[in-house]
UniProtKB/TrEMBL annotation:
This is alanine--glyoxylate transaminase. GO terms for molecular function: transaminase activity. Homotetramer. Belongs to the class-III pyridoxal-phosphate-dependent aminotransferase family. Residues 423-467 are annotated as: Disordered. It comes from Saccharibacillus alkalitolerans. Its cofactor is pyridoxal 5'-phosphate. It is an enzyme of class 2 (transferase). Its EC number is 2.6.1.44. It holds the Pfam family Aminotran_3.
Length: 467
């Protein structure tokens, strides 16, 4: 099918909420590790991985083989009958995450968070929740209620027992100051309503909120405050979990042990699965019959076991840290060269974001769309997120190669260089063909005239290479 045909069918039959990236979107028909191919045979290097999903690569042979083997043997009966894969997966997760010996399997991130929130209510016998502004936790009614990002709050009648506190981030503000402000708001809410609050839910790195890493010490201090009021901490590890940030759980990496963790996306490597896991004490409160038709089905569970085997065998967390450091360094250097365009680079491991025109987010959003389109035309799929949709998102399959990162940075440099040249031309035209002054060059932070030459070609001229 042509892209036009697919768009026409989606327009005709999907709900009007459905969107797609790109003015000229490709139809993706196959994938292999860090690559996807469209219907016309064009190959793209995927730097978005379906928002962190295919961390282990598209159609990874070892994982696809496990899926197919199980699909040929036994697909599903009911989770009330005994089958092996989900039992083995539960045991495996408990070994990998010993703080959380008990797990409940479901089918998506939203369902995992919904289950975790309900578990917290059962455990504390309280109704309320605390969440951060600009968070995203899912699409069910309760999870949209604890979602701070307005564009994802689809339910017009959200649960009204949710207290939002400012996330510990503001562009240009010192992270520790932002943390203090957020923690002081947390303390106020706890003082006022602590007796009615079951849990606080947090993404260790806000993904859709624009790759906002919780500052040093923030989560541990929040946990101490919460404990004082008997309030649980839920870490939403749906984007961060299973190695992307450099460890299996970003919450542990950021120095906290939550009471409940939720997972989905990367655990299934492209096959739907969700789960929430808890301490023995908290899990004991889910002691009434509860089951999911497909939660822990043999095909998803066998796939997840193969995903975990691959993550361990290939040491993907270490790889994410190593390659993430290289990618971040490259983006940072580009930011120094294009300071008008790139306001900030942030993130951890292979979960990185670059914000465009923070001071003018509407312009940033338009330029972000242009960068995405031009990068796609050059063979690279990157994502976007952020409150104003002006943050480039880099969260590739962790199996990506160093050469892919270099090639992507080169393409990004060419795209940003083109945009910067246009901006300078427009400025010059507006100022009556006035050439940039040395002061402009200094403000650009680069060694040459700002944006006149792409950054990497300058580097090459200097005999240097981006790391
Ligand atoms: N939590 C986070 C942090 C997410 O990023 C998402 C999805 N982007 C969800 C929850 C919801 O997951 P799902 O789409 O699988 O329901």
């Amino acid at each position: 099918m042509t892209p036009e045909e697919v768009v026409a069918l989606r327009k005709a039959h999907f709900f009007p909420c459905t969107q797609h990236f790109y003015r000229n979107p490709p139809v993706l028909v196959s994938g292999s590790m860090q690559h996807v191919t469209d219907g016309e045979g064009r190959v793209y290097t995927d730097f978005f991985a379906g928002v962190s999903v295919v961390a282990t690569g598209h159609c990874n042979p070892a994982i696809a083989e496990a899926t197919v083997r199980q699909a040929r043997r036994l697909q599903h009966t009911t989770t009330i009958y005994l089958t092996e894969p989900s039992a083995l997966l539960a045991e495996r997760l408990a070994k990998l995450l010993p703080a959380y010996p008990r797990v409940f399997f479901c089918n998506s991130g939203s369902e995992a968070n919904e289950g975790a929130l309900v578990l917290a209510r059962r455990h504390t016998k309280r109704r309320g929740f605390i969440s951060l502004t600009e968070s995203l936790h899912g699409r069910t009614s309760l999870t949209t209620s604890v979602t701070g990002l307005s564009m994802w709050r689809t339910d017009p009648f959200p649960d009204d027992h949710v207290y939002f506190i400012p996330r510990p981030y503001e562009f240009g503000l010192d992270p520790q100051e932002a943390a203090e402000r957020s923690l002081s708001a947390l303390e106020d809410v706890l003082n006022e309503a602590g007796d009615n609050i079951a849990a606080m839910i947090v993404e260790p790195i806000q993904g859709n909120g624009g790759m906002i890493v919780m500052p040093d010490g923030y989560l541990a201090r929040a946990k101490t405050l919460l404990e004082r009021y008997g309030v649980l901490l839920i870490a939403d590890e749906i984007q961060t979990g299973f190695g992307r940030t450099g460890q299996l759980l970003a919450s542990r990496q950021l120095g906290v042990q939550p009471d409940i963790v939720t997972m989905a996306k990367a655990l299934g490597g492209g096959i739907p699965i969700g789960a929430f896991a808890a301490t023995e004490e908290v899990a004991a409160s889910l002691n009434v019959p509860s089951a999911s038709t497909f939660g822990g089905n043999p095909v998803s569970a066998a796939t997840a076991l193969a995903v975990l085997d691959y993550i361990e065998a290939e040491r993907l967390p270490e790889r994410a840290e190593r390659l993430g450091t290289a990618l971040k360094r490259g983006l940072e250097r580009m930011r120094a060269y294009y300071p008008h365009l790139l306001s900030e680079v942030r993130g951890l491991g292979l979960m990185l974001g670059a914000e465009l025109y923070a001071g003018d987010p509407a312009r940033g959003a338009a330029v972000t769309d242009r960068v995405l389109e031009e990068m796609k035309d050059r063979g690279f799929l990157i994502g976007k997120n952020g409150v104003s949709r002006n943050v480039l998102a880099f969260q590739p399959p962790i199996v990506i190669e160093p050469g892919d990162i270099e090639a992507m940075l080169e393409a990004l440099d060419a795209v940003l260089g083109g945009i910067e040249q246009e901006r300078l031309k427009e400025e010059e035209a507006a100022e009556g063909a006035k050439t940039p002054t040395p002061a402009d060059d200094v403000s650009a932070g680069g060694s040459g005239p700002a944006g006149k030459e792409p950054f990497l070609s300058q580097e090459a001229a200097n005999g240097g290479r981006p790391e």
